[in-house]
Amino acid sequence: MPSPSDFELSRRDLLVGASASAAVTAMPAMAMAQGAPAAVSGDSEAPVLSKVSFEVNGERRELDLDLRTTLLDALREHLQLTGTKKGCDHGQCGACTVIVEGRRMNSCLSLAVMHEGDAITTIEGLGTPDDLHAMQAAFVKHDGYQCGYCTPGQICSAVSVLEEVKAGIPSHVSADLNAAPEATGEELRERMSGNICRCGAYSNIVEAMTEVAGRPA
User: Fold this and answer.
1) Counting CB atoms within 10 angstroms of each CB, which of 100, 137, 186, 197 has the fewest?
2) How confident is the model at residue 215 (pLDDT cuts 50, 70, 90)?
3) Residue 136: which residues within 8 A CB-CB, separation 6 or more?
């Protein structure tokens, strides 16, 4: 039977073993630094491009886009319409809301190639500093913003919400299909619940919307 002394390591043996292990671990990193070819992964494949044509703020635009490009990135990165903001990039904050074929949507959740031929309106297409849309003017009047980051999405959503109410499209509040919804504070808050304002300007946003809807703020 081996004695305990047979398993003893000298301090020198221990240091030599540790150094050898560290050298083996560092070899892949050293090879990459010296230009050795890396393993091929799926991410290195060339993107598949497709022509996409749609109308943005009344102007026909044609782009060659990677099939994976979101509508949000097409607007911001390819058309330089940076008014539409990228917030959570998961469809949870509403900062990227635009109006597509008259309906509001989170542009971060939709691929650009899905909108061939569509009419898209961003915050830049609603009004200009010299000729504000009624909703933009109401947001200014009622301080419907603080930091302003969510404001483009809030305004695009607010414009569409009033169109939904006007068209009689029900929400969870106005679930009665036989009764047209009204632009009450509760109704507007429910419909705008997908647009998050971290600054908490919700009451001012409702005041702006109610004014545009034709009721006293």
Assistant:
1) 186
2) low
3) 126, 127, 155
